[in-house]
Structure formats: C-alpha cells, structure tokens
Amino acid sequence: MSSCGNPATDPDALMERRAKFDKTTDCIKCKVERGSIVVRHAVYCKNCFFAVVTHKFRRSLEHPSDRMASDARQAASSSRTKSSLVGFSGGLGSTVLLDAVDRFYFPHEDLKKGGKAHPRNKKTSVKVHMCYVEMCNAFTGITDRTSDITDACKDYENLELHICRLEDAFDPNWWSKFHPLGTNIIPSSSIRLDDEALPFTQSIESSSDPVSNLRKYLTSLPTPTAVQSAIKTMVRVILLYTARFLRCSQVILGTSLTSLSINLISSIAQGGGFNVPEESYEEWTASSVDFSAQPTTIRVIRPLRDIGMKECSAWAWWRNLLIIGKEKLPINERQSIGGLTEEFIIGLEKDYPSTVSAIARTCAKVNPKDEATSRCAVCQRPHPSGALDWKARISIRSLSGDESSSVTDSNTHGDRASGLAPDLCYACYSHFVSRSSKSIAIQGDSAIPLPTWVSNSSSRKVSLERLKESIGEYLLEE
Amino acid sequence: MTSSSSSTEQLKINVDFGGGLEILFDNKRSHVVSLPLRVAPSSSDTNPTDPISSSTTESATADETRPTDVSALIDHLKDNVLSDRKRAGLFAENGTVRPGVLVLINDSDWELEGEGSYVLKDGDNVSFISTLHGG
Fold this sequence. Notes:
A: 478 residues, Rossmann fold, 13 strands, 38% helix, B: 9 strands, Rossmann-like_a/b/a_fold (chain A), sulfurtransferase activity (chain A), CTU2 (chain A), nucleotidyltransferase activity (chain A)
C-alpha cells in the first residue's frame, strides 16, 4: 500500500504494514514470558491472557450497584447469589460464556485463590440454568441440533439445560405456563401489513399450528433485515420469559465485544438508536401476567462485552472447548443490515481492533434525550412516544393524493386507534412497513400472526374481564 | 545441500482447524501437509497490474523462488486440501485468511511471528480457528 506522498521526504508515505503489537513480543503483564497472543496491540502470555479475560468477565458480570460494594468479597458474593439463566446458541461466544460461568459459579480446585473463606471459593447454592432456542422449524431444510446441544452441555453438570423452540413464541400451550388463567384464554393476535396503521385484531379462538404461524410471520416480513431482527427478538423474549418462569433474576448472554459493536451499529442503522443502552445492559419486567410470587425485574447482562471475538476464540481453543456453531439460516445476509454490518466490523477488526472496541465504549456513553413512555409490544424494549410523528417528519410514505392509508399523517388518529403502530418502537414499526418488491407482493394478503406476548403488551389488549366473560359459562363457581 | 536435493526435500507441517472451520476441510480437525522448501513467488510479489514491477521482474521470475511461508501454506490448503470449494471464501480471500480467522503458529498468535511472511520450519504446527460462529 502506498500514498501519494514522496517517500524521499516523508518516510511514512510508503505506508508500510506495521507490526500489530506495541513494543516487544514479551508479555506486557508478567514481563517474563514470551507472548502468545496480541489483544488490541497488547501482548500477553497464555497465563496472563486467562487472568486478564477472567478479570474482565467477572467485572462485567457484576451489577453497577455491586461495584459500589466496599470490598471485593462483597461484590463477588453479591454476583454469585443471583439465580441465572445462561443463553446458549452453540456459537463461539455462548460456548466461552458457559465455560466461564461454570468456572465462576462452581470454582474448580485449580482456580481457588484467596483462602477457604473467600466467597469466590464457595460453591454457590443458587441454581444456574442454561437455555437453548432451537430454530430449525423457522425454515425448511434446517437441521435440528438439540441432540448436539444436549451432548455439548453434558460436561456442565452443575447447570440445568432447558430447550425451547422458536415456534414457542406462537404456541398458546407454551405461554399458558406464564398465564394465571390457563391455555384457553390466551388471545392470539394478528396484523395486516397492507395498511401502515397495522390494523390489529385479537381473538380467543384456539390458534392454528405454531410452526405454520411462525413461518407465515417470517415469510410475510418485507425485508431480510426485518426477518433477521424478528428472529433475534423472538429468541431474546423467549429467554426472558423462560428466565421468568424459572424464577431467575438475571439472563446472561454471550455477546462479545465484537458482537456488541456489530449489534450497536446494526441497531442504530435500523432505527433502534433509542435502545443503545439496552444493547449492553437492560432490565425487563413482564407485563400483565401474574408473577406476584416471582422477582419483578430481570436484568440482562453480557459479561463478555469487554472481550473480543479473537480472545473468545483463543480461550475456546486453549481450553479445548467444542464449538458446535450456529445454524446458517436461509437469509441473504448480503441484503440485510445485520449481515453487512457484521462483514464490515469483522473486516475492520482485522487491521483496526481498537476502533471496534471504541464503537462499544463510545456507545456506552450515549443516552437517549427523551424519556421512555412505554415498552414496544414486539421487542419489549422501552420506547418514547411520538415515533410515528417522527417518522412522518423524516420520511415520505405515500404519494400526494394517496394519503388514505398513511399512518404517519398527523390527522389520522382514527386509524391509529385501531392499529398496532402506536405500540411499536421506531425500529419495529420500520421493519413492518419497509418497502420492497416483497412488500408490494403481499399487499392485500390475509392477517399475519404475531408472537403471543404482543397480545399482553399491546395497549389494545383484551381485558381480563372480557376474557372471563367469554369463557364464563365454562367456569365453575367457587 | 545441492540444488537438486533441496528441490526434492519437503517440509512436514501439522495443520489444525477449529471453531467450525474443519467443516470446510472434510470435517477433519488435524492434517499433515507436505510442502517444498521453496515455492514460486506469489502474485502479490510481482503485481501484474503494476507496469513498473512487472517489467523489472519479467526476466528474473523464472529462477526466483522464495522460502515456503505461511502465505504459501494458505494457498496450498485452499488449492489442494479444501474440500468444500463452494465456500472457499470462508477460509481465504485476497491471498490471506479471511478476516475473523485466528491463526496460531506453534500455539502463538501469528501477528507475533510476522503473519503470512513467517518462514515455515519442518514440524511446525499451524492452527486456523474461525471466530465467525456467532454469539
């Protein structure tokens, strides 16, 4: 590579490839051993690498309030007394996460330091669960990998595996366990995409096959970006509800620093700028469901958020962990914002790893200006009011004279009242109303089923009294 | 060492694949690869699109070889060992490994060894580990 400068006068004009480490090939921590890995220009030997990564993991696992604890013992103890659900996909990040969580909660003999009484060295009495969401039924031709996942998790005897399926998002039987009144009255909801108000209907009739509902939902979404985002949202919400059911107070995800940077850029590009803080840490409360006996809020933490993919990969290799890998879904990633962002960030990380780290660190300082007024009915994340007005101001959604179906016109409050649009965040709304050749093809199509939790979250949900009325004749008197 | 003996002498390199990359190589994690001590210069050494470099090196390229390095190993793996040719781009592109593939030379990051220009020695262990298998 060369620049236009004169190499005779400017030595940097040739732009020769520089070494990717700062000074020597010796470890910068112990300064004795020869380095084994370069992490963002810093060289570490194998022993110091594990110590540094473990320290970053523990620090990220702690709640901000834990860090206020006066001593490290209190902080370590506090983090380890919370019942947890670990999200496991079989991918690199979650495989490393499982290994690190197992070592943190159930310290092995070789890791014990700080004396017998140190809280870090006591086995926790708290239950730690792991949950895998199988998505083979989302599309045809995808292999069911539940047996591979079960085999891979056998090594973690202290952790209990739960297997969910993506179609559970549409399965009233699955959702009945979260509902106080049983399966029969869980309403199913649907929307129409041919109207930008997203007309919303609910019924309490028993819905059709969850797999066909899932496929209809995914195939109706207008863009690959929307499909990819919908799958990601469904997996996250299924994990949250599973954690709720298992009475866990925290969900632990294997999002690495690289994945976090990808998620942040991708989310902002899709209109999710309001939820930048939620990409690294969020607190979620289930709505309208009787969980009085269970914890009210679940926190979602990503303890690998300071650890890049390269470090995860080296950890997995040196710890001899088996990576099953994530199933490749038939989504054209080169046409999706998520896929293009991933390709860009991973290419950037090869030569400029610190820039990828800077993305996450910069976003950690960003907070939305407006207050959240409610939660999005689909993604369950906080959103401010006025997303539709904002969309009306920044985009032209219809040609002049063809405004009858435009929800973004500020005079169409009547349409809004019957539609799901006001209950959605800007990003989810944009996913539903994106224009593409496919969205034109589905104009006039029948109603599209929505995940079951949308019924509970929508402000137009069927009231409990109305539900009781409709099944009243079947209820026994007390 | 005579020139005739050096041309027949081979390097034995132990190659490992991990992180899911083994799927592209017949689902085998470990391979032993034989390479000559010296190989022909790579296309990047004599850039055909650069008129100056191509004209100055034209007469010399016939006898010029370079010691076998990791770049040559990557080319060899791509051309001769890779079984899933449709997805070759997941392993190598533009004469090096694809971004997101970690390379260890004798259990040490290849960035400490000079990356593709590291000259291979008989019995070296080279590991290619994909980091692209999601979260």
